[in-house]
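A quick aside before the break. I want you to see a complete sequence-to-structure record at least once, exactly as it would be stored in a machine-readable document. Don't worry about memorizing anything.
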Amino acid sequence: MKKSILALAIAFGAFSANADTWNMATPYPDNEFHTLNIKEFIKDVEAATDGKIKITLHSGASLYKAPEIFKAVRANQVQMGELLISALSNDDPVFKVDTLPFLATTYPQSQKLWSVSKDVVAKKLDEKGVVLLYVIAWPGQNFYTKAPFENLDYFKGKKMRAYNVLTTQIAKALDASPVTVEASDVAQAFSTGQIEAMITSPITGVSTQAWDYVKNYTEVNAWLPKNMIFVSKRVWNKLDKDTQEKVLAAAEKAEKRGWEESEAANKENLSILAEHKMNIAQPTPEVKAGLEKIGEKLANEWVKETGEEGQKILDAYRAAQ
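That is the input. The structure line, written in tokens, reads:
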């Protein structure tokens, strides 16, 4: 009830008489590197606009849960939001570009993939009533297993954690059995035998204390999911050109800083996994080749969904390699 009243108050501007006070919703906690970066962005915007724009951050899904954020910004119930790009893949398959596996497996490659898909993504967001400000990648998604593996036969018949359409597709491509398990239930799922393998980031590995239930981490960086920060188009269009440019300059700064912080978070969490005696391994050539084959298959399926738009993105990415 309190949450509903808070949302209504924000929607009707009850929090401030100043029309340039924005509210922003994010599903991530205060200590997440994405959230810390947003706080710096907010400071930069307020400084650059001499206080003309003030942004109040509502973290940890305190205002809206992740699935609600995009709709809330579109409806101008809240002025800004943060969400995974792939969270909109049910609206348009182009947004799946964020999670094409075994295609862009390093930070430079992920940045290249983003650079060739940015205009299409931004245009589609604009058509939906929001303006894209900046995008930052999470660390790559990697395998956590009870035993080391030298080929993909290891996964046949294994129960593998799935938490979205993509991870279900990967599990099936590996001849594993996908089992839906939320991040908060991972430890119990491993200990009870509900799952025997998973693919996720080192950040999730640390937050769930993966070393308590698995000992092997294989660094494949299957994909680097990206968060996007966006603003209501109705709010954006009320800004004068000079103010828009100042906000975009702060966004560009935040994007650069955020990618650097993502890499730092990746290294930090890998070190923590190693400190807890996790076996950090690189994939064998056989595993790497097998995963690339799976990636090619899923990319081709994506092109069938997206048509010319998807094909142009893939062609541009491959040409940039």
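Two observations worth writing down. The longest strand covers residues 130-137. Confidence is low (pLDDT under 50) at residues 11-18. We'll return to this after the break.
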